[in-house]
Automatic annotation (TrEMBL):
It comes from the Bacteria. It comes from Ectobacillus funiculus. InterPro entries: AKR, AKR5G, Aldo/ket_reductase_CS, NAD(P)_OxRdtase_dom_sf, NADP_OxRdtase_dom. The lineage of its organism: Bacteria, Bacillati, Bacillota, Bacilli, Bacillales. Residues 30-265 form the NADP-dependent oxidoreductase domain. SUPFAM superfamilies: NAD(P)-linked oxidoreductase (SSF51430). This is Aldo/keto reductase. Pfam families: Aldo_ket_red.
Length: 279
């Protein structure tokens, strides 16, 4: 993990950047396009969106413009999207994928995820992802918000093991058992809401650790993610924050720092519970 272009190798051999930009709740418009272009300009090589975010067209525009401005090709960028719950099922997932691809203006996706484990549907959805993967339309496939029991259930019938599980992960929700299970299975864990939607940015203990390193709390948390071997995709629309979030490759947290941050866990979610959601 030397820089923003550093990658982890997924179990199918595909390389995925450790660090990327998330665009959750960023509406279509100039602000979105500017944020994604700024990320690419400043060295980000991974962009994470989803059908339900309603911003795939703007992300696609920004990717095209950002790559052109930076003199990069499509292959230099790792693009993720996700199938929404209402579209789950075999045929409907295939259709949803084509819609996402069309909106993004891309020929393929680097990663496509099942957004939530919709009971009675996610196995058929996974079958569709496997078909798209085998057809070469997606370089890697995975899931999001899957608990251990969801993964165990999926693995019973899956031909292809998920390459990624993207979950809520931050110092108040360290998901130790889930991370251990994913490691054993060769499934890469990825963090959404790594900064707990900003709720940790004035935490006194984190402030103390940040001060010792001459870094911000956000930088300390994002570094903690990486040192735990978790891919992370903080969201920001402000260019200075996009730059600041990524300035985490010039310091290292000590073993004691890591333990202190781990100890902040309260199994506290800011997002929905994957075992109890109704959307």
């Amino acid at each position: 993990m030397q820089n923003l272009q550093s990658t982890t190798t997924l179990h199918n051999g595909v390389k995925m950047p450790w660090f990327g930009l998330g665009v959750f709740k960023v509406e279509e418009g100039p602000e979105l396009v500017h944020a994604v272009k700024a990320a690419i300009k400043h060295g980000y090589r991974s962009i994470d969106t989803a059908a339900i975010y309603g911003n795939e067209e703007g992300v696609g525009q920004a990717i095209r413009e950002g790559l052109a401005d930076a003199g990069l090709s499509r292959e230099d960028l790792f693009v993720t999207s996700k199938v929404w719950n209402a579209d789950q099922g075999y045929e409907t997932t295939l259709t949803a994928f084509e819609t996402s691809l069309e909106k993004l203006g891309l020929d393929y996706l680097d990663l496509y995820l099942i957004h939530w484990p919709v009971e009675g549907k996610y196995k058929e959805t996974w079958r569709a992802l496997e078909a798209l993967y085998k057809a070469g339309r997606i370089r890697a496939i995975g899931v999001s918000n899957f608990q251990i029991h969801h993964l165990q259930d999926l693995l019973k019938e899956a031909e292809i093991k998920p390459m990624i599980n993207q979950v809520e992960y931050h110092p108040r929700l360290t998901q130790v058992e889930l991370q251990t299970f994913c490691k054993e299975q060769g499934i890469q864990l990825e963090a959404w809401s790594p900064l707990m939607q900003g709720q940790l940015l004035d935490h006194p203990e984190l402030q103390e650790i940040a001060g010792q390193h001459g870094k911000s709390i956000a930088q300390v948390i994002l570094r903690w993610d990486l040192q735990h071997g978790v891919v992370t995709i903080p969201k920001s629309i402000k260019e200075h924050r996009i730059i600041e979030n990524a300035a985490i490759f010039d310091f290292e947290l000590t073993a004691e720092d890591m333990e202190r941050i781990d100890a902040l866990n309260q199994n506290h979610r800011v997002g929905p519970d994957p075992d109890n959601f109704d959307f």
